[in-house]
């Protein structure tokens, strides 16, 4: 569990991390279960996170453990659900835009095993066109490396590993000489619409009822 005195993460890192976690939780049941357990443990007050040996010592002294005492106490009134954190809200908002313009969530949630390659190709083209429009309307992206893919590059000592990932036969230490296989992407700007009051960011796409 993170230390309360750990330095806070910058906004850009939290935005990327929230977006990555959203998709992991959505499509990876094991990761979702671990994240849920971590969330539940973090929500418990310190008394309820007492170590087993502390509980045994409390029982030996004749005092009920804090967790048992809490169970006997009247349940507090339910508090309203907290609003999503800014980084999470922005990630959900971006996903909502990709769904609105390109039906991305519909495409990913659709079982395409029974469809022919031609049908999948037509659907993928439509999703690509809409998502590209949404992405270019709200984000300014630039390649991490300026060289053309396939060019020979040299990574000197002190290169940023978050910007460049080494693949293939990695051994030794910098400088590394290799071939650029992917230029990478960097988000230079992100401009999202301001949510209206009462907006629920967790609703990626509202249900539609035709009358």
Describe the SSE topology:
Layout: H1 11-27, H2 29-43, H3 52-60, H4 66-72, H5 86-102, H6 104-109, H7 117-138, E1 139-142, E2 152-155, E3 176-179, E4 186-190
Describe this structure in words.
With 211 residues, the chain is mostly helical. The protein folds into 2 domains: 11-71 and 83-143, no CATH class; 144-189, no CATH class. It contains 7 helices and 4 strands. The protein has helices spanning 11-27, 29-43, 52-60, 66-72, 86-102, 104-109, 117-138, and strands spanning 139-142, 152-155, 176-179, 186-190. The strands form 2 sheets. It has a two-stranded antiparallel sheet. A two-stranded antiparallel sheet has the order 2-3. The chain starts with 10 loop residues before the first helix and ends in a 21-residue tail after the last strand.
Strand order of the largest sheet: 1-4
Oligomer: single chain
Q: Roughly how much helix do the residues carry, as a percent range? A: 40-55%
Query: In terms of structural class, how would the helical and strand content be classed?
Result: mainly alpha
Termini Cα gap: 51 Å
Strand percentage lies at 5-15%
Number of strands: 4
Largest sheet, strands/sense/barrel: 2 strands, antiparallel
- Apparent shape: globular
Mean pLDDT: 79
Using only C-alpha atoms, the radius of gyration works out to 24 Å
* Overall structural domain count: 2
How many helices in DSSP terms? Answer: 7
Unreliable residue runs = none
Order of helices and strands: HHHHHHHEEEE
